[in-house]
């Protein structure tokens, strides 16, 4: 590739709405272009990275025996009604009507459609197991789209769905996907961790998330450095609450049993003082998200003299269905949903008072509306007007690991993949059966497996950057090597050598770009350092006269002279 025939558009400054490094750098490197909230055009430089991510995903999915298909983005409501998710998905699912007034969903995920494919196509146990996957556009009307591709509304996901005849088979398919994911994230060249995820009300089911480790991650991961225990914070907390805890924590847990949910009472028992006008209620909302029960933890600050136990929460359909029995006015609501802090939507008119009174409530402990799910020891310190998600902890660094093999450490991660054993949750509702060896119909055992293809770009950058820009791992870099000629137009010698290297590297299968734009060296280097190409070869007359080229890795402090004749071997 020649830079003059590619499209390169870099910026000195990131737009002001870009909050985190990856978003800023992707905007500055001209990888994405914002069209609307959470909606981006993948520019040529960004698309090159996406295609490399997709290629690795496809190779490993195929290697694991999964079969690619592609399901429609616009899906008839009837299918979603069969599983009840048309109502349960809530506002995150985008809906449209056609000219006849019929309802459609824009796929946030595709369990219904794939189950429909399978129930009509699969007849016999002989066709099992089968695993279908797609790499497709998804749309989720996220409550708070942000961080560029990290939490977009339109994004690309690889979603796979396995079907087996029995639980044992499903577990095998799951293990095979788990291994494929491990290979995929290893090949990306990223530091990652697979963690057990809370399965909530689905009970016997089983789930893991794959996280790219990064300071800016929205999720907290709990792990034991001296064993292989690893879980996301929710799962770690659920486990902690159900098992033996140190004496102090147990006392707090007891204090927050359901019949003492009133914060006042909890506070009294613990000898803490609450502000008189503002009370709070911590609660856990269970809702279904993409076929999984998920729990969101919320802290509501309520103004007024109402009794807190009058507050009734309609648990099933999610946040939009909060109903308050009395005239509670929500002063503010803080969700311990990773990364989200801000007002929630309720069907009641909600007045959000700007002047927060959180400071009056320093050091209070909150209760919950449900046995077994509550946070204890939440400390909304005086100096913390915006309570941090990290404060809502029941598991802290240094706690004993549940496997007894050491103490726990906590780090932050970005969820880039999620694997799940679904069992018959969908097949039962949609009557997806196969005929077993005896010719009797039996429900299919299902698993589902997602990878956030476009989110990987953001996650990779959060893990690999410096003050000059992005540092792509080789496997997903937009170009592996940039050839930077000093005076391409001026010097015959430089031009000839640059052209030779371009041709030979291409022939050797290296994804290389020759910067023939005629920029001054400083501007040229700055562009490629910002874009994050991992290897740079400078071709200059002075070096060439001694038979040398200059090589510099993106992380290297200085360039190394490499004989021109050896450069291809050096890079390969
Ligand atoms: P999150 O917790 O970040 O909202 P999720 O648990 O809702 O993600 P899944 O339903 O598990 O997401 O979807 C599979 C994968 O799709 C996720 O692991 C993530 O990598 C990716 N993904 C989900 N939502 C988005 C989004 N809004 N933008 C980009 N990628 C996303
Ligand atoms: Mg989500
Ligand atoms: Mg999640
Ligand atoms: Mg998930």
Automatic annotation (TrEMBL):
E.C. code: 6.1.1.15
GO molecular function terms attached to this record: proline-tRNA ligase activity
Enzymatic reactions: tRNA(Pro) + L-proline + ATP = L-prolyl-tRNA(Pro) + AMP + diphosphate
Subcellular location field: Cytoplasm
Enzyme class: ligase
Chief location: cytoplasm
Coiled-coil stretches noted in the UniProt entry, renumbered to this chain: none
Domain of life: Bacteria
Keywords in alphabetical order: Aminoacyl-tRNA synthetase, ATP-binding, Cytoplasm, Ligase, Nucleotide-binding, Protein biosynthesis
Domain named Aminoacyl-transfer RNA synthetases class-II family profile: residues: 33-473
Family membership noted in the UniProt record: Belongs to the class-II aminoacyl-tRNA synthetase family. ProS type 1 subfamily.
Subunit note: Homodimer.
Domain comment, as recorded: Consists of three domains: the N-terminal catalytic domain, the editing domain and the C-terminal anticodon-binding domain.
PANTHER family (UniProt xref): MITOCHONDRIAL RIBOSOME PROTEIN L39/PROLYL-TRNA LIGASE FAMILY MEMBER, PROLINE--TRNA LIGASE
Function: Catalyzes the attachment of proline to tRNA(Pro) in a two-step reaction: proline is first activated by ATP to form Pro-AMP and then transferred to the acceptor end of tRNA(Pro). As ProRS can inadvertently accommodate and process non-cognate amino acids such as alanine and cysteine, to avoid such errors it has two additional distinct editing activities against alanine. One activity is designated as 'pretransfer' editing and involves the tRNA(Pro)-independent hydrolysis of activated Ala-AMP.
Protein name as catalogued: Proline--tRNA ligase
């Amino acid at each position: 590739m020649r830079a003059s025939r590619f499209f390169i558009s870099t910026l000195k400054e990131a737009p002001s709405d870009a909050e985190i490094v990856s978003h800023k750098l992707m905007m500055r490197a001209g990888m994405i272009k914002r069209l609307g909230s959470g909606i981006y055009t993948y520019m040529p430089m960004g698309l090159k990275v996406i295609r490399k991510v997709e290629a690795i995903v496809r190779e490993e999915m195929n290697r694991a025996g999964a079969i690619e298909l592609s399901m429609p983005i616009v899906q008839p409501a009837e299918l979603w009604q069969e599983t009840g998710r048309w109502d349960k998905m809530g506002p995150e699912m985008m809906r449209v009507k056609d000219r006849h007034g019929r309802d459609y969903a824009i796929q946030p995920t595709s369990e219904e459609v794939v189950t429909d494919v399978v129930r009509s196509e699969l007849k016999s146990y002989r066709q099992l197991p089968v695993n279908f996957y797609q790499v497709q556009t998804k749309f989720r009307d996220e409550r708070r789209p942000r961080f560029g591709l990290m939490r977009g509304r339109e994004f690309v996901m690889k979603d796979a769905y396995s079907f087996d005849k029995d639980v044992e088979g499903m577990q095998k398919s799951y293990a095979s996907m788990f291994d494929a994911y491990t290979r995929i994230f290893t090949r990306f060249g990223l530091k990652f961790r697979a963690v057990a995820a809370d399965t909530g009300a689905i009970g016997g089911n089983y789930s893991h998330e794959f996280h790219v480790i990064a300071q800016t991650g929205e999720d907290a991961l709990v792990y034991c450095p001296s064993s292989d225990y690893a879980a996301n914070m929710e799962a770690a907390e659920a486990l902690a609450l159900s098992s033996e805890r140190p004496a102090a924590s147990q006392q707090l847990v007891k204090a927050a049993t359901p019949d003492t949910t009133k914060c006042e009472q909890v506070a009294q028992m613990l000898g803490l003082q609450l502000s008189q006008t503002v009370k709070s209620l911590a609660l856990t909302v269970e809702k279904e998200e993409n076929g999984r029960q998920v729990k969101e933890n919320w802290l509501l600050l309520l103004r007024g003299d109402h009794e807190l136990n009058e507050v009734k929460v309609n648990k099933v359909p999610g946040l939009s269905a909060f109903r308050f029995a009395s005239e509670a006015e929500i002063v503010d609501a803080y969700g311990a949903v990773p990364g989200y802090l801000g007002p929630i939507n309720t069907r009641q008119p909600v007045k959000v008072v700007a002047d927060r009174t959180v400071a009056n409530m320093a050091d209070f402990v909150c209760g919950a509306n449900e046995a077994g799910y509550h946070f204890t020891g939440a400390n909304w310190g005086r100096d913390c007007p915006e309570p941090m998600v990290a404060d809502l902890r029941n598991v802290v660094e240094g706690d004993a690991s549940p496997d007894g093999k050491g103490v726990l450490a906590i780090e932050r991660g970005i969820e880039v993949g999620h694997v799940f054993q679904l069992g018959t949750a969908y097949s039962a509702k949609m009557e997806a059966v196969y005929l077993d060896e005896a010719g009797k119909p039996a429900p299919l055992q299902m698993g589902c497996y997602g990878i956030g293809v476009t989110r990987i770009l953001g996650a990779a950058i959060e893990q690999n950057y410096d003050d000059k820009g992005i540092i792509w791992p080789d496997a997903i870099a937009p170009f592996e090597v940039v050839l930077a000629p000093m005076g391409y137009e001026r010097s015959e010698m430089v031009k000839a050598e640059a052209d030779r290297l371009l041709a030979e590297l291409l022939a050797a299968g290296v994804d290389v770009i020759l910067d023939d734009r005629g920029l001054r060296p400083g501007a040229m280097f700055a562009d490629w350092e910002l874009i994050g190409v991992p290897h740079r070869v400078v071709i200059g007359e002075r070096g060439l006269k001694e038979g040398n080229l200059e090589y510099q890795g993106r992380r290297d402090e200085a360039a190394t002279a490499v004989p021109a004749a050896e450069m291809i071997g050096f890079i390969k």
